[in-house]
What we know:
Elements: H1 18-29, E1 33-37, E2 46-49, H2 50-66, E3 74-78, H3 83-95, E4 98-101, H4 108-118, E5 122-125, H5 134-141, H6 143-147, E6 163-166, E7 176-178, H7 179-184, H8 191-198, E8 203-204
Parallel strand pairs: 3-4, 3-5, 4-8, 5-6, 6-7
Antiparallel strand pairs: 1-2
Helix pairs in contact: 1-2, 1-3, 2-3
Amino acid sequence: xxxxxxxxxxxxxxxxxxxxxxxxxxxxxxxxxxxxxxxxxxxxxxxxxxxxxxxxxxxxxxxxxxxxxxxxxxxxxxxxxxxxxxxxxxxxxxxxxxxxxxxxxxxxxxxxxxxxxxxxxxxxxxxxxxxxxxxxxxxxxxxxxxxxxxxxxxxxxxxxxxxxxxxxxxxxxxxxxxxxxxxxxxxxxxxxxxxxxxxxxxxxxxxxxxxx
Length: 212
């Protein structure tokens, strides 16, 4: 049976990766809804098209590159199901990094184990969820994060962590930067550099339990 060219497997091996998948889907279905979500529990529902998702992912990817993310760098994402998680997953791939998901139900010990075991150098997070104060716990348990400078974290318990960016932080707290600061870091990163980085293979990190 003949197959439609639209459904044929992608012949270019460089495009068989997470970052290029978004480009291809946006090219074919850019005006279709990719995500539908509520910013707050009682807020009106919103929708992003595939093209909007691609635009936001590339914007964050430029920020990651501007913040020093290079091929193979581990970028941890500690937030629940929300549009920014999806954006971050594509952005890390576009920048050539390795995505490290952090369970929102992880205990502080499990969180630290994942960050340490994965060698995460950058943590993208939100302030908290359902009564859990992620940011407060992180600052209370790691003086190097609480008193450090952005991009220059020095923490023995998390020796490879250099930068923490909080999605809903209004301002810098210790070494923790607000989300707009990360986006601003990519203002001098052009599309040519981003496209060159996105041609690299992307990986997804998974770790064993610290109890294993």
